[in-house]
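Postdoc handover notes: sequence design on the structure in folder B. Input tokens:
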């Protein structure tokens, strides 16, 4: 089973690796292989490309760090969508990951000027730090647009890009409409 990729900002995509199918919870980061697959699926969105050696070196420590970051972002997202304050532990975990690997841009000049993101940290550590910093930016600048999917049994989050949007995907909207129709005609 593959993790849903909805085109949401990277921190939300990471949160959505904890998902449900027909109300049954699934963990898209249940193994190192699944983390590696998620990173590969999102590689075009990451500032650092992991080499095959770096992907092969991902182990339990990195997997646990990714899960810890995901759970902290989820905690904050749930609090925002519920209109409550997130736990101090989730905020500290998010800030901890953001501090792991400061990064900067370097100017390079070939035919035209380009900026390349650099970090002194290992690529996966830098990637998790980048996602944590993106989550902080998302929560500060787009918290009013963050929504929990209203689809039956869905546990995903999304950024509301139009006023009527209530579901993470068309499939969740279809399930919700079918459930309403079934309830009316039962």
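Designed sequence:
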């Amino acid at each position: 089973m593959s993790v849903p990729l909805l085109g949401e900002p990277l921190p939300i995509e990471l949160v959505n690796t904890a998902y449900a199918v027909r109300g049954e919870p699934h963990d898209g980061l249940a193994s190192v292989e699944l983390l590696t697959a998620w990173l590969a699926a999102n590689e075009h969105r990451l500032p650092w490309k992991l080499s095959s050696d770096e992907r092969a070196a991902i182990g339990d420590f990195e997997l646990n760090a990714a899960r810890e970051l995901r759970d902290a972002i989820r905690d904050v997202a749930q609090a925002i969508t519920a209109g409550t304050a997130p736990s101090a532990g989730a905020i500290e975990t998010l800030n901890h990951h953001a501090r792991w690997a400061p990064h900067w841009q370097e100017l390079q000049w070939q035919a035209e000027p380009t900026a390349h993101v650099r970090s002194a940290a290992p690529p996966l550590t830098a990637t998790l730090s980048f996602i944590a910093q993106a989550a902080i930016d998302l929560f500060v600048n787009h918290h009013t647009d963050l929504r929990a999917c209203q689809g039956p049994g869905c546990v995903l989050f999304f950024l509301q890009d139009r006023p009527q949007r209530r579901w993470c995907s068309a499939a969740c909207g279809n399930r919700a409409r079918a459930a309403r129709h079934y309830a009316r005609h039962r």
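Context for whoever picks this up: The mean pLDDT is 90. Don't rerun without checking with the PI first.
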